Structure formats: structure tokens, C-alpha cells
Amino acid sequence: MAVARQRRKPGTRDAALARDAILDAAVREFAARGLAGARMDALARDAGVAKGLVFHHFGSKEELWKAALERIYALLRAGQDADALGTLDPAEGMRRLARGTFRLFRAHPEIVALMNEENLHRARHVRAMPRIRALYNPLFATIEDLLARGRAAGVFRADVDATALYIALAGLGYFYCANRWTLSSAFAGDMFAPRRVAAYEALVGDMVVAYLRAPGAAAPARRSALPARRRRE
Amino acid sequence: MAVARQRRKPGTRDAALARDAILDAAVREFAARGLAGARMDALARDAGVAKGLVFHHFGSKEELWKAALERIYALLRAGQDADALGTLDPAEGMRRLARGTFRLFRAHPEIVALMNEENLHRARHVRAMPRIRALYNPLFATIEDLLARGRAAGVFRADVDATALYIALAGLGYFYCANRWTLSSAFAGDMFAPRRVAAYEALVGDMVVAYLRAPGAAAPARRSALPARRRRE
Amino acid sequence: MAVARQRRKPGTRDAALARDAILDAAVREFAARGLAGARMDALARDAGVAKGLVFHHFGSKEELWKAALERIYALLRAGQDADALGTLDPAEGMRRLARGTFRLFRAHPEIVALMNEENLHRARHVRAMPRIRALYNPLFATIEDLLARGRAAGVFRADVDATALYIALAGLGYFYCANRWTLSSAFAGDMFAPRRVAAYEALVGDMVVAYLRAPGAAAPARRSALPARRRRE
Amino acid sequence: MAVARQRRKPGTRDAALARDAILDAAVREFAARGLAGARMDALARDAGVAKGLVFHHFGSKEELWKAALERIYALLRAGQDADALGTLDPAEGMRRLARGTFRLFRAHPEIVALMNEENLHRARHVRAMPRIRALYNPLFATIEDLLARGRAAGVFRADVDATALYIALAGLGYFYCANRWTLSSAFAGDMFAPRRVAAYEALVGDMVVAYLRAPGAAAPARRSALPARRRRE
DNA sequence: GATGAATGAGGTTTCATTCAT
DNA sequence: TATGAATGAAACCTCATTCAT
Which helix (H) or strand (E) holds C47? Predict the structure, then answer.
């Protein structure tokens, strides 16, 4: 028998590393240029492997795109991790979810880029990926829980739809990041300047909480974007 | 008998018509497939002209893209026409602006598609188009006016930044439209179903108004999503 | 009858002017970019007429090329005008012919450029233009006359072939001009600097005359390149 | 039985072969039709490869042109190999250089064709290729050496510029070849008929040597054009 | 005679993918 | 598993030419 390498099937570990490197590079390339604009050549070079290997591992550009999408959605779930919100005061939990979602889009522009592109294709690829739909479930459970607790405490209005709320909450952060460049151009300043970002993050939280507040509830103290200036209003 | 065409400088009018047809087709094609994915061939066929004529009129795909962007931004300005809001009650004006913006994105998905793509390119093209920046001016003037009047009347909080407010207001509608397909897939239903749209449009207005409300101001009666139930506040 | 313009058929004179302007522009364009590289568009713009008019007057690019060639050859004949040499001392006549030919190529680079290009096409066009061959006749008559007179006077060697001599004489000036740019690049200096040109022009004359001198004839005084220094050696 | 290929790094040797085949075909195509007139399609077919491979190896038509130029200049240097002349009698060395250069242009019309075309482009490409300038150095060293020895021996005139001499010497052969077709047309005979070529080659040698001869030096016996009659001078 | 619009064939170049090793 | 060479379909773009006016 041939000399066996210890502990693993020969090449297997390297192969997994290469696969990962390719997927990383693919996410970068797709985020930078879209699906049609991405170049298999460039992405292979970025990953440090021969172009043929990309096809060996992923079969085609389209399959690679799906794998990249899957990675993006995993990021999304990990970033909007709902567990930490379960025990919070409902308003505070919603505020954190909104701000966290904005922060997530800021930290991972590739999420925004790939979601945009996938929508350009009318979600053709994700529709065929059942695992992705399931990702939303824990998040929605948490939102429903927060809403229920807030309603029970009489601090949230009663007619809030969880889906619509999630969309609004996400949209507040999404647009800011998705349109970073055109907004920067229109307003002649960097939208990602820390001060600007902090102010907007405060707005995002305030807006969601203001919307949720029950008609008769007392207005809560507002949170400013800058912790040091809290309670200044 | 053949219909007699009006006397005119030969070719001149046809040229403008052809140019327009090409630009229309370009907006469609770019909106459907992005900049890299768009095919000059397909777009020329759609416009009913020879491929070469597209280049005759616009020079290159990139220049055609710029022309399409310009058209999109004109749509945006026309749709967010601020004049009508100038005389309204401030809260009502803001609500209308928010809902109208959402409606605009729904009616013109090409605005969303092209803005996404332009951001993928880091606004490389619009940055070189000074006319576009100026489009925001009247809109901002109106927003500032509404804010000032609301503050003066004591119904708006005092610390609202017009730019951030605009971004939030637009983002609420944008995300819903930009992610129409992935959201439809995730939630297993058509996001553009009239009932769903109406509910969300109400949310958009409510959220902006709730955010703006001054701490001590009386909560206004809520407006429903259905125009038939409109009441003057 | 319609009102007749005086003196000429209406439009005729303008038409001739336009034709000339086109031909001028064509020679420039062909000289700058060759036959394949020339652009009908560019040439029409240069001539200040609509592109269609070029086709109206000349029918096709190829026909325009032929017309340009004909103009070039006319220049060549006018430049190498042999009449003035008929009465000179034979050696001096040859010297002048050689130097004059060099000067002609320098003054009209388009001659060189178009002749090169026509040779690329294996003289396909000129072969079908009988007028062009006839252009050489008066020049050859003069060369033969100079040679005969020089031989009769015992100052020229006896075995000189007029055709070969003409080729050598022309080649001395031609190469310098045809390769102006690569030579300038190779020798890191402008080949058309007046001093360099003058020195070479002297060489050209000297070389032809030296070749022609009969074995026993006395060496003639050399002529320098700079008229002012004449007879200084 | 199949012929076993030698063991080698896969693809590597084939790639070099393909590259060479492409370059060969490119020189042929460029020589036949110029830079603008050359067709990548035709050249790829001639080389027996897919069109895409040409771009894979050379990037663009312009880069391929540069590679072809480099090959031409290598031919030029190899053909004007100066080493062999170093030990000859100075006049004989010059004569051989002149005749050899003519012979080189005859044997390799592609040299003439590509140099003409490169001059049409004002040496834009060679100017950016420093290796090419260096090619002239050994040739010039030899010319200078021949001139110095001829002057020292009192057989060459003293005022000869090496650069100008080289240009004249090359020009004598160049024009004959560059204008082969128009001259053949004008003189109604094939310029490349052996007898005609031999006579002109003799002229070329005679003319250079005659020019160089010092005023007081004895006229050397003339060399005929036909090798059979060669006599050592 | 002259124009400006329009065309279609064909040019260079790109790129996902395949294949032999 | 991995590579580097190679392909062919199709992309963008050019340009001589035609045509209605």
C-alpha cells in the first residue's frame, strides 16, 4: 500500500482550505462587481488558485454565486442574533435590534451588495435554497416575543405587524449603506464618517421605538447616539 | 392615401425620437440586468434600431448608462415633487412625503435598480454629473421648511437633522422595493399584494410622524392605510 | 426658365471647391493613417463636408485613394521638374537632382507615406492608372541627357544605368524621410533638425557625383551643405 | 505504436510553440496588410490557433505589433551582423555592409514593411522599447572602426559622419525594396529579376565606396555585380 | 449637390468553461 | 486535487456605405 499520510485523507484538508479561499474571494468579487460583472479569472487569482480549480469545486459561476449567497445569509443570521434580546425590556430590545442591524450592514457591505444583486435576478437563486428561508425563523420568533411583551406591558401599540416592522427596521439601516456612495456624492461628505454614522444610528433606534409606543404610554427618555451626552435633551 | 408627414428639417425629429426610444430601452435593460449584465444588442432590438445607432447616439455603454441615470434622477425629482407639500400641516406633509416616496419606488422599480447598481460602482458616474446633485436642492428646501414650521408650532422635536431624516424616510420605502423578491421568497407571499403594500405605506407614514413628534405634544389620531378612511387631523 | 446665375452652372464652382477640399483632406488622412487606417468620417470632418458628399464625389474609399495617389504623383513630377537641369553642367545637374529629390520628400511627407502604402498593396492601384507611368518619362529623358553629356565630356563613367541611378538617387533621400521617426528614436535626436538635414543633403549630392565620376577624371571641388561656406574646402 | 513524447511540464512547451506560431503569423499578416489592415482573425487562422489564444498570449493587437517589431529588429541586427566586417580592408568592409544590407531587405521584405508602418505611427511603439535602440550599438561601433581605419590608411575622406553614412547606405537598398511594386509598375519590369538586382547591388557598393574615397587616393578597380568576376582588390 | 440619419457587416476583445496532464 | 493551455460563443464597438429629403 502507498504510504498514508497521518490523520486524514491526502489532500483533503488542503482542499477544504482552497475551497474556503475561493468562496471568500468569490464573496469579495461578487460584492465588488455583481454577478454579471464578476470575473472568474480575477476571483481565482485573488484566491491564489488556478481558475480550473474554481470550476472543479463549484462547477459553474452560478453555483458559486449560490454558495456566496448562502455565506451571506449565514452572516446575516449571525449578526442579527436574536437570543441576546430575549430578556431585555421590549423597547430597549427593539432599539438594539434596529441599531444592530444597521451596524451589521455597515460592517458587511457584501450582505447589501449580494442581496441587491439577487433581487435584480428576482431571487431566482434563493428561491431554490430552502435553508435560507428557515434562517428568518428565530429572528421572527424574537420579534414576536418582544412585541407580545411590549403589548402586555401596555407600552407598545397593539396593531403592529412583525413582518412589516422587520422590514422597516432593516430598511432604515439598509438604505443608508446601500446608497452610501450616491448619498456621499449628493451630500458632498462621507456618509461613513463616525459622527454621521452615530447620529443616524440613534435616529434608527428612536424612530422604531417612537413608532411602537402605545398612544397613552409616557414618552421614554431618548437615547442619544453618543453615550457621553445621554440625558442631555 | 398615405398620411402626409408635417414639413420639418429632414431627419431631425426622427433622430430625437430614436434617441428617446433607445434611452427608454436602455433604462429597461439596465434595470433588468444591471450595467454589466445589460446587452447592447438586446436593448437596440428593444428600441427597434440597429445596434450601431445606439453607439452613434451615445458613444458607449458607459455613456448610455450615464444618460439612463440622468433620466432616473429626473423621475426621482418629479416623483418627490416638493412643491405640493409646502402649504400642508407639517406632520401631514412629512407623512405624504414618506408615503409618496414609497409609492414612487413601487411605481418605478428602475429607480431602485439603477441606484443600486450605481452604488456598486461607488457612484463613479454620478460623481461626474453635477446636475444630479442639484436635483436634491428643492427637496431639501421643502424638508427644512416643514421641519422649521413643525418646530415653530411645537409639534416637532427640535433636534432633527434634515439629511438623516430624508435618508430614513427614503430607506423605509426603498428596502421594501429593493428586496421585493427575496422578501417575497422569505415570507412566501407577494410583497406587492395591494393589502400588504397599503399596510406598509401606513406604517411608513406613522413611523416618520411618530419620530418627529415633540416630547410633550399630544399624540395625533392615527391614519389608517386605506385612503377611504382618511380623516383630517 | 429658372433664374440663371451668371457665368456658371449653378453649384458647379462650389462643387469643385468641395471636391478639392475633400481631396486635400484625404491626402492628409491617408498620409497620417494609411489606407486601412484612414477614416472617412475624420476626413469628411477635416474637409468640412458631410460624409455623404465624399461618397457622392468619389464613390468609395478605394476610388478616393486612387485620386489621392494621382495627386501625389503630380506633386512628385512637379517637384522633380527636370527642365531646369537641362542646361547645367552634368555633375552639377545630377547633384541638384539628388538634393532636390531629398528636399521634395522632406517638404511632402505625404508622397513618401502614400507610396509606401501603395507598395504594401503591391501597386494594385497605380498599375491600373496609365497616366502615372507616363509621369516618369520627362524625368528619365533629363537623366539620360545628363549622363550622355557627362560621358561625352569624359567626366562620367560609362557604365551607368539611368534607371538604377534614379533609384539610388531617390533612395538616398527617401529612406531618410520615410524612416524619420524610427531614426530619430534610434539616434535620440530630431532627424529634421536643420543642421542635420543640411549635412545629409550635402552627402546625398556628393555621393551621387562621386559615383558618377569617370575613373581618370580629376576630383571636383566638394560642395558643402551650407551655401555660405561654399568653396571653403 | 504511438510516438512517446518526452517528459515535460504539461503545456509549457506547447505554449511556447503556440506563441511562436502566432508571432510568425503576425509578422506575415502585418507585413502584408499593415497594422490597421491586419486581421486578428486571419492571423490566428494562419497560426492554427483560436483567436482567443492570440489575446491570451499577447493581450492586444498593439502589443502583438510591438512583439512583431521586436522580432523584425532582431532580424535586422542579425542580418547586419557587424562582426564579420571587423577584420576586412575598410573599403571592402563598407562595400559588404552596403550590399549585405540591400540583400537583407530583399530577403526580408517584412523588415521594410513593418518599419514603414511604424514610421506612419511616428515610432510611437519603438520609442517605448529601449531594447531596440541598443541594437544599433554594435553596428555603429563597426562603422566607426571601419571609418577610423580607412582614415588612418589615408584611403577615406576625413569628414564622414557615421550616422549619415549608415542612413545613406541603408537607403540605397531600402528604397529599391520598399518601392518594388510601384517601380516595377513604372518601369514595366520585375525589379527583383536576378540580373537587375545584381546590377543594382554592384551600384550600391560602388557608390558608397566612391563617396568614401579620399581626394588623393587612387581609384580602386571596380567590382562587378557578378560574383563570378570577383577579384580581390 | 448636399445633408444627417441609419444600417449591417465585420472588427477587436472578453470570458466562462473544458481538457490533457 | 490541481494546473495551465486552449477554445468558442458572444460581447462591445467601428466604419464604409446607403438613403430619404
Answer: helix C40-47
**What H or E segment, with its residue span, contains residue C68?**
helix C61-79
Question: Taking chain C (233 residues) in consecutive chunks of 10 residues, what is each chunk's mean pLDDT?
Answer: 46 80 98 98 96 97 97 87 78 94 96 98 94 80 92 95 96 98 91 96 98 81 47 38
C98, three cell numbers: 539628388
User: Would B194 be classed as within a structural domain?
Assistant: yes
- Residue B5's CB is within 10 A of a number of other CB atoms, namely 8
Statement to judge: residues D137 and D37 lie in one domain: no
According to DSSP, the residues that pair with A213 across neighbouring strands are: A156
Total number of domains constituting chain B:
2
Please list every residue in chain D whose beta carbon sits closer than 8 Å to the beta carbon of residue C179: 115, 119, 167, 174
Based on the fold, state whether residues D33 and D86 are members of the same structural domain: no
Q: Are D154 and D214 in contact (CB under 8 A)?
A: yes
Closest amino acid to nucleotide F5 (CA–C1'): D11
d(CA B2, CA B50): 26
Longest dimension (CA), chain B: 76
| Contact between A67 and A55 (Cβ < 8 Å) | no
Strand partners for A156: A213
Which residues in chain C have their CB less than 8 angstroms from residue D122's CB?
181
Determine if strand E comes within 7 Å of the CB of D60.
yes
- The verdict on residue A164 lying in a domain is yes
pLDDT digits (tens, 9 = 90+) for B77-106: 888 776 677 788 999 999 999 999 999 999
Question: What residue numbers bound the domain in which C142 lies?
Answer: 72-216
Q: Are B170 and B101 spatial neighbours (Cβ–Cβ below 8 Å)?
A: yes
Does B222 reside within a domain? no
Flag whether C228 is in a domain.
no
Cβ C53 to strand E below 7 Å: yes
- Is there a single domain that holds both residue A55 and residue A76? no
Task: Identify which of A36, A127, A174 has the shortest CB distance to residue B34.
Answer: A36
Shared-domain flag, residues A161 and A192: yes
pTM of the model: 0.89
The 3-class SS string of chain D reads CCCCCCCCCCCHHHHHHHHHHHHHHHHHHHHHHHHHHCCHHHHHHHHCCCHHHHHHHHCCHHHHHHHHHHHHHHHHHHHCCCHHHCCCCHHHHHHHHHHHHHHHHHHCHHHHHHHHHHHHCCCCCHHHCHHHHHCHHHHHHHHHHHHHHHHHCCCECCCCCHHHHHHHHHHHHHHHHHCHHHHHHHHCCCCCCHHHHHHHHHHHHHHHHHHHECCCCCCCCCCCCCHHHCCCC
Whether residue D110 is found in the same domain as residue D156 = yes
Question: How many angstroms separate the CA of residue A130 from the nearest CA in chain B?
Answer: 9
| Same-domain pairing of B35 and B103 | no
Distance (Å) of CA D231 to CA B69, B106, B201, D101, D199:
82, 97, 106, 21, 16
CA distances (Å), B68 to each of A119, B65, B150, in order? 20, 5, 37
Interval B49-84: pLDDT, tens = 999 999 999 999 999 999 999 999 999 888 877 667
Q: With contacts defined as CB-CB under 8 Å, which chain C residues touch D218?
A: none
CATH of the domain at B162: 1.10.357.10
| Nucleotides in E strand less than 7 A from protein CB | 1-21
On whether both C42 and C105 belong to a single domain, the answer is: no
Contact predicate C225/C199, CB 8 Å: yes
Based on the fold, state whether residues C165 and C130 are members of the same structural domain. yes
Contact A179, A120 (CB under 8 A): no
**CA→C1' distance for B185 and F1 (Å):** 37
Quote the cell numbers at residue C156: 562620367
Report CB contact under 8 Å: B120, A132. no
CATH of the domain at A54: 1.10.10.60
Q: Output the CA angle C43-C45-C48, nearest 5 degrees.
A: 110
Query: What does the pLDDT look like over C182-203, one tens digit per residue?
Result: 999 988 789 999 999 999 999 9
